[in-house]
Amino acid sequence: MSTGDVRRPKVNEISTKAVAADGDKPDATGPKSSKAGASKSTSSAKSGGSAKSGASRPGGKPGGGKGTPGRASGGKGRKPVTPVKVNQGVNWGPIAMYGTAGLLALLIVGFGAFVLIREASKGTWQERAAAIPGIQNFLTSNPDWFQYGTEGNHKNGVLEYKTAPPVGGVHNPVWQNCNGDVYTSPIAKEQATHSMEHGAVWVTYRPDLPQAEIDALKSKVEGRTYTLMSPYPGLDKPISLQAWGYQLKVDNASDERIDEFISALRQNATVEENATCGNGITDATEKPLDLQPDNATG
Amino acid sequence: MTTRTKILGAILSVALLGLGVLAGALLARPSVPSEDSADVGFARDMSEHHAQAVEMGMIAYQNAVTPAVRTLGGDIALTQQGQFGMMQAWLRDWGYGPTGEGKPMAWMKDGESYLDGNRMPGMATREEINQLRSAKGKDLDILFLQLMLRHHVGGRHMIDGALAEASDPEVLRLAEQMKQTQGTEVAVIEGMLKDLGAKPL
Predict the structure, then answer these.
(1) Residues B76 and B173 grouped into a single domain
(2) Residue A297 Cα to chain centre, angstroms
(3) Are residues B25 and B37 in the same domain?
(4) Which of A72, A237, B117, B165 has the smallest C-beta neighbourhood within 10 Å, fewest atoms?
(5) Judgement on whether residues B103 and B144 belong to the same structural domain of the protein
(6) Out of B8, B48, B126, whose CB is closest to A181?
(7) Is there a contact between B77 and B58 (Cβ–Cβ < 8 Å)?
(8) Residue A98: its chain B contacts at CB < 8 A?
């Protein structure tokens, strides 16, 4: 600690005691400024005085505190302005300073913590998907569906899947184009499954869905990459959404979960990051076209 | 030292300690743009915009009859697929998903005014893409050049938006590069259209 720091608390003590001293002898020293000077030196002495102040005080005269002989020697030096300020009940200066600094620091800490917590609470796409009511995650319930045997992941011809529509597994060597493609007649599920492997969300609907509902779905797909949409005959619910490993079935196109599903899983649910949705098959045929031999492409 | 000073000192020490821990936590990780920033919005939307250019470029690479058009198609597809990967890598590094919620272009000032449905400026409709896919010969070459010209000119709005509002140096660098190369390609495409006796859309 510096000398200044040592002095400061002393000044506090002094000012408290100064009040008492003034009470004892109200008229002894006359003007206010002199009082302060007097009380200062008095209390310095009371508190034991330091060698320094003792030495600088000629004859222990009042007003000689802090080594300034000024007042006693007849206005030779500066006015004791500082001692006047010191003469208060409580010295608010340091309290205000430390208080403000502390408060400011706490505010910054609090804000920073808020930002960090908010970022962390957004969650991963898997967490956001898991939070959608009614969603099915087959990656955890049936991981074996997504394992390929020695025959690889690409197979021509009509394939059997455990769910309707499928959510992954072995698929046609060529994918259905999925850059926001809206197919108005059924497409080959074997090709759409390949699209999902590339990260696409496949929106399917029962062919008897009212046109207004179809248009509402269309507005969520058209112009957006990594999505495709088609009617699916025999669907057990009016609308079903699929992504690699995930499925959600809903009753109408205004269901908020549709946007949540697309937002969480589009381009996220994939086993082939950055694989393209362009350059796929754009023909809508219920049976796969089998344009390439088995295991010909990625 | 009085009790009060000690208490004040203790409070200040704890606050400073907390400040230090926080500063460490924030400084230890690289600065990351916020999710609603132009940087994140541009990376996501330009990825989608690029995906369509890749699709069109590949169609031209496979089916165009004019050698220069075929070369241009392959060049655009490869370059933009590469840039797509860069932008996706940024998003992953920053801890954001490849796609956002809600409408495209929201990151840019007046961005939504450029939208046609979900389509960002310059993007072709699915009908136009399918038309390109089924076109043959010189017709395909011309349609590709016309669609790609419009695609580049539209994308320029997004590039300018990023240059005006993004802050990440890598984003600004790539946006500047896109502005240069696509600007050059616009002139090339206009020349090719002229050579084929056609006009822009």
Answers:
(1) yes
(2) 41
(3) no
(4) A237
(5) yes
(6) B126
(7) yes
(8) 8-9, 11-12
